[in-house]
Amino acid sequence: MNDKLIYQMPPPACPIRFPHAIAVAALSVAIIVSLTGCGSKGDNGAQSAGVTVSNVTLTAAQRQNIHLYTVAQSKFRKTIETTGAVDFDNDQSTSVLAPFGGPVTRLLVSPGDQVKAGDPLAEVDSPDFATAISTYRKALATAQTARRVADLDKDLIQHNGVAQREEEQAQTDAANAEADRDAALQTLVSLNVDPQAIKDLQAGRPVSRPAGMIRSPIAGTVVEKLVTPGELLTAGTTPCFTVADLSRVWVMAQLFGSDLASVSVGDPAEVETGIATNNFSGTVDNISALVNPDTRSVMVRVVVENPKDFLKKQMYVRVRVQAREESTGLLIPVAAILHDDENLPFVYVAQPDGNFSRQHVTLGYRAGDQYDIAGGLQASDQIVADGGLFLQFMQNQ
Question: What is the pTM assigned to this prediction?
């Protein structure tokens, strides 16, 4: 008798169970289906990528969960948001160059000081200054002497005291001397010589060697001090100070691509600093004719009033430009926009038979809580403005 060996599997140590997470997920799906009143769709419940989704049919009770919106042509004004940086108004600011050479002996102002046109900014021990005064004094004396000679010859020629040619030469010499005098005087004025010193020279009074004064050409605030005592200045070359009227500044903003077509000179703008509630109103004053080759942006200049000098140069700000010209488009609520598995935007459109179908759309400009639809919808279409997620859930069952 042949014995047969029979192998028997031992009983499991514990009964096989579903993982707890799978059980919970299954229970959740069952609850959601029961709440929506939507039964199982069998094999059509899971849709693979690329399969056209079917329309959604709602019961009367389910329709209470959605709100429809009728698409219509609407007018709106575009608002372009960008960034920018504060700069001085170049029409109200200037770099003060040294009008003469020499070492700086004394600084008379500090950054932040308010000055008027003609106020002294620094004192310079300048040989150019002394030379200009000496030249004017000589030219003044020569012109006076030449004029007296010319007047004397004019009287003598009436009595045949001098020849006609001599009298004409005297008149020419006097005119040349007076031209040299006027040129020397203009040099003193350009060097900002004290007007009282010029009057003393013209009156023949002695003038002590005055110090060369660098004066402010405009009224404003000293925003930069670029020299120090003892520094040697070069006439017409060395920048000494920057003086600016800060009551108005420029904000240089950048525009890109299609935003450029929406902005025009004269459009109102709002500048946000991000510091408390300090916002400022301005106006687009200039749009550059050049494109920045590095950023591919176009510079737009916004003129902004600057009370209390709050805006500082190189301060970064946000700029909102509102177009004055109205645009027309199909505006729909942002809440109506959904996205499919490929992240393409679509809306649900009500069909004549009462169903709802997906319609892919092309999004344009966003105006607040509405989108301008560039394609995919027509006026009078009815779309689901609120409740689209409910439809999408039912469609995916």
Answer: 0.62
83 forms beta bridges with: 318
Residues 109-133 have pLDDT tens digits of 999 999 999 899 999 988 877 888 8
Q: What angle do CA 117, 119, 120 make, to 5 degrees?
A: 140
